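Ticket #174: bound-state structure for zinc ion.
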Amino acid sequence: MKLQLLPVGKLDDGLLAKLAPALAKTFQVPCELLGSSLDPDFAFHGERQQHHSSEILARMQGLVTPATWRLLGVTAADLYIPILTFVFGEAQMGGPCAVVSLHRLRQEFYGLPKDEAILRQRLLKEAVHELGHTVSLTHCADYRCAMAPSHAVEWIDLKERWLCETCQKKASTP
Ligand SMILES: [Zn+2]
Ligand SMILES: [Zn+2]
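RESOLUTION: The complex was predicted; output attached.
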């Protein structure tokens, strides 16, 4: 069984290729980049100009195969759930699907110069966080842990890219 990475819409290939080995190490599971992508147009809501992340997760469920340990979608689209203005990502508690958005992880979103290194770090932390939910982890009180909640990008920057010892023990990795 593998952790599979699914591009949701158009993505810069390099991003996922760099994300895969880091996630494989954190979750101690082989990680593969899927060749196909999922077009997220069906989840776009014109009144909000955003994509509904729960609808993307529901569609991803249909792409799960016996080879899937977890399926992580990565998208450039801005995601939301109805009760919030936006989400960095969403996961199915206990698995198997999770999705993360690059949209608000980019420095450019905040009027700052583009920074690929910062983007990659934030993406990794968010990916670990959402995958943490898929292995039934809830939010962690340790602000340095990847499972700490983050409602702003500054909080993501405070976190580490791995799970604290307590979360690691609780995580049901294969
Ligand atoms: Zn969370
Ligand atoms: Zn923790």
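RESOLUTION NOTES: Helices lie at 13-27, 53-61, 116-134, 153-158, 165-170.
TICKET STATUS: resolved
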